[in-house]
Specification:
There is one protein chain. With 419 residues, the chain is mainly α. The chain has one domain. Helices cover 72% and strands 3% of the residues. The strands form two sheets. A two-stranded antiparallel sheet has the order 1-2. A two-stranded antiparallel ribbon has the order 3-4. Strand 3 and strand 4 form a beta hairpin. Helix 7 crosses helix 10. The two termini are 24 Å apart. About 1% of the residues have low confidence.
């Protein structure tokens, strides 16, 4: 698990975030892909070497439903790569399409084949501590760039009510807000965790991404209703986040009282901006709805043919669009790998979600309960992000899913053997 955590640090770190916000998305994704790609290659090599030295090339793998589903999905993945090469698809898009799934497969298989038992207490402790540092880094980088190098944000800006704001580009930290809340509820009821909650809430607000707002809201709503025994405490913690965020936003508003900025108003306007003044859905959302319709039409019309990795599709207007540039990862998989593979991934995702809920109830200690209970809420948030956020390679989103999937399979296997 230590190596998996190291890979997460390489794929999600201050250097990458700073580069992303100051040089634009393309440079950031290249840097992240390169760093994570080197790690994955090293992880594969070390795993192979360990297999030869310590086990004489022999491994014992217990077949599980998750393992069979992952293997079948990997088969479709390999076929899509071959199809992409045969069709001569753009190599750049082939890499961008295939890399997120590659991260997921490598992480899952490494955990599955590892003989080391998962230490949930250490995993949760170091994960939360690292994310605390990342939350501080987020705000520091955002503040420095906003005050001194605002032009660096470029395409990461948004126009809200006539005011241009810099968006804090981070889709990873919001995923873990449920874990922070459960850590404070069950493990570490300390001041630094309260600070982490407040800072994380502020990071989420400053993204000015409606996708993040929607995803976090649904994830926290699920967390509250799925932890009825701690309903009042979790709700009180959530109110604490809102209070801290309100104080910070109010303080920021006073600081900028002589300028055009009004943070509370900008936040509320950004939430409401999904609709235009005439109460029709705005262009950004409407274009994604139209895009999804085109993707579904192409998938059904071309079945059983697939575009393969690096593929593209034709819109209703006849425009050719790379699949990678669309904003629904589940539909991306259907176009790239085929309808059976897309449905298989959805089945795998739902199985992971329901398994985390079951393992949270069967947890042997509080750390394990926190990990799996938070993971189920995290998967809710991640599902919304995958449905609405384009360019999945920006962040190690499927790396995190592979991590959870591997832990689910490994822990379920251990429980079954023990029983």
């Amino acid at each position: 698990m230590g190596l998996i955590f190291l890979g997460f640090i390489l794929a999600y770190n201050p250097i990458y975030l700073y580069y992303l916000m100051s040089h634009g998305a393309l440079g950031g994704i290249t840097l992240r892909t390169l760093a994570s790609g080197i790690f994955l290659a090293g992880l594969f090599f070390l795993s192979f070497l360990s297999l030869l030295i310590t086990r004489n090339g022999k491994i014992r793998v217990r077949s599980t439903a998750v393992f069979l589903l992952v293997n079948l999905l990997f088969f479709f993945y390999a076929c899509a790569l071959i199809v992409g090469f045969i069709k001569g698809n753009d190599p750049k898009y082939m890499i961008l399409d295939s890399f997120p799934l590659l991260e997921m497969f490598v992480v899952y298989y490494f955990i599955k084949f590892s003989a080391v038992q998962i230490n949930f207490k250490k995993t949760v402790k170091w994960l939360v501590f690292y994310l605390f540092l990342m939350a501080i880094t987020d705000l520091f980088s955002y503040g420095v760039l906003s005050f001194f190098k605002g032009a660096y944000f470029g395409a990461l800006r948004a126009l809200i009510g006539g005011t241009t704001v810099n968006r804090l580009m981070d889709y990873v930290l919001p995923l873990f807000l449920p874990m922070f809340m459960l850590v404070y509820t069950h493990l570490y009821r300390r001041k630094w965790v309260v600070v982490l909650l407040g800072v994380s809430g502020l990071v989420i607000i400053l993204t000015f991404y409606r996708t993040v707002y929607t995803a976090v809201f649904l994830g926290l709503f699920y967390l509250i209703i799925s932890n009825r025994k701690q309903f009042f405490f979790i709700s009180r913690t959530l109110l604490l986040i809102i209070l801290v965020g309100g104080i910070v936003l109010g303080g920021g508003n006073l600081f900028f009282k002589n300028s055009r900025f009004n943070f509370p108003e900008l936040f509320s306007q950004r939430v409401a901006s999904i609709f235009s003044p005439d109460k029709k859905i705005d262009y950004s959302a409407a274009s994604r709805v139209a895009q999804n319709k085109d993707m579904v039409y192409n998938a059904l019309n071309s079945f059983p043919n697939i575009s393969g990795m690096g593929g593209s599709y034709r819109s209703a207007e006849g425009q050719i669009t790379p699949v990678y540039c669309t904003a629904n990862f589940f539909l991306q998989l259907i176009l790239l790998l085929g309808i059976p593979a897309g449905l298989l991934f959805l089945w795998l995702y739902l199985k992971a979600f329901f398994s985390t809920r079951k393992l949270a109830l069967q947890a042997a200690d509080q750390s394990e309960q926190v990990f799996f209970s938070a993971s189920s809420a995290l998967l809710i948030i991640l599902a919304v992000v995958l449905c609405l956020f384009p360019y999945v390679s920006y962040f190690p989103l499927l790396y995190i899913f592979g991590w959870i999937l591997g832990c689910v399979d490994k822990r379920s296997e251990e429980i079954r053997v023990r029983v």
